[in-house]
Amino acid sequence: MAPQEAAPFSVTPLGPFSWDAACDVVAHFGPISRHWSGSGDPLRMAFPLDGTFAPVAVALRWDGSRLAGEVVGTQDIEAVSSQIARIFSLDVDGLGFEELGQRDPALGRVIEAFPGLRPVCFTSPYECAAWAILSQRISMRQAAAIQNRLIARFGTRLEVDGGEAFAFPSPERLAQLDELPELAQIKIDRLRAVANAALEGLLDAERLRKLGPIEGPESVRVIPGIGPFWSSGIYLRGCGIADEFPDEPLSIAALGALHGLGDHPDQPTVTRYTDLYRPYRMWVAFLLRVAINRGAITGVAGRESEVRDASRRRARASRAHPVTGSRQ
Q1: What is the average pLDDT value for the chain, to the nearest integer?
Q2: Nearest CA-CA partner of 162 in 42, 29, 263, 304
Q3: What is the 3-state secondary structure (H, E, C) of 71-126?
Q4: Which one, of 265, 254, 267, lies nearest residue 303 by Cα?
Q5: Which residues are paired to 45 by β-bridges?
Q6: What is the per-residue pLDDT across 169-179, written as a single tens digit (0 to 9) for each?
Q7: pLDDT (average), residues 88-102
Q8: Distance (Å, rounded) from C-alpha 134 to C-alpha 111?
Q9: Which of 5, 13, 56, 63 has the greatest number of CB atoms lying within 10 Å of its CB?
Q10: In 162-201, which residue ranges form alpha helices assigned H by DSSP?
Q11: Whole-model pTM above 0.85?
């Protein structure tokens, strides 16, 4: 594709934000690590744009006070700016986040260890749903390799700021998927279902945000292959939700380890602590997971497999007993 004229935009965070920490997360986050340019200057990303699913690419740099970018593929600069803000959790006022350390000194030490860290989200609920299907019952590395082949065949190559980036296939293209090496037919069928759901508006970020923490996740469980665990992930990490603590074993185990409560603190105890973290409960969950992966919280190694196992158990249970309670 011939180079396109790039348009500038910027996003200014409220509260502490570390671009270096964000780039480090991107480099280790399988679903979007393909966007990593190696240095973060610039970090190039490409993705289907919210609403239209037009393939766009951005080149991002931190200039000391704001995230400055250039975009190709669209003239809708406001839509791109909003989506980038959501991906890097810059659409949330973070001025009060460090104050959580005064409410919970144990958490405060973790916040101090990772200054300016904010959640890095999926580029959209649509891409999150596709990753949910691709990653089922295989490792993240295997899923990322298959995703790269999918993008190479059905995605869009764009040039921005002297480099290239590859956008995930639009729903229109994904709906045409017929075969892909190492991808089982059931996953192909489910990816096409994800594409159709996106075209019907079921995976629109603003729609899911407005539905809220109960109806939002429940609304995407109609997609074949999306159960309770990933419907929650689509809502939380696809939409950039700031104030929900996920009901999943790794985050709960990390919370327990942080406070010397063991791997399985009971729900009243979890609620008592997480209520202290409002309005940043999801930010705390993300911080705890990063702290585990970086060795800042110990005693919960190997819990990723437990997350998968618990997800499958909940999916089986939900078929018999639909989940109706609020996630705390």
Answers
A1: 90
A2: 42
A3: EECCCCHHHHHHHHHHHCCCCCCCCCCCCHHHHCHHHHHHHHHCCCCCCCCCCCHH
A4: 254
A5: 58
A6: 999 999 999 99
A7: 98
A8: 33
A9: 56
A10: 171-174, 185-199
A11: yes
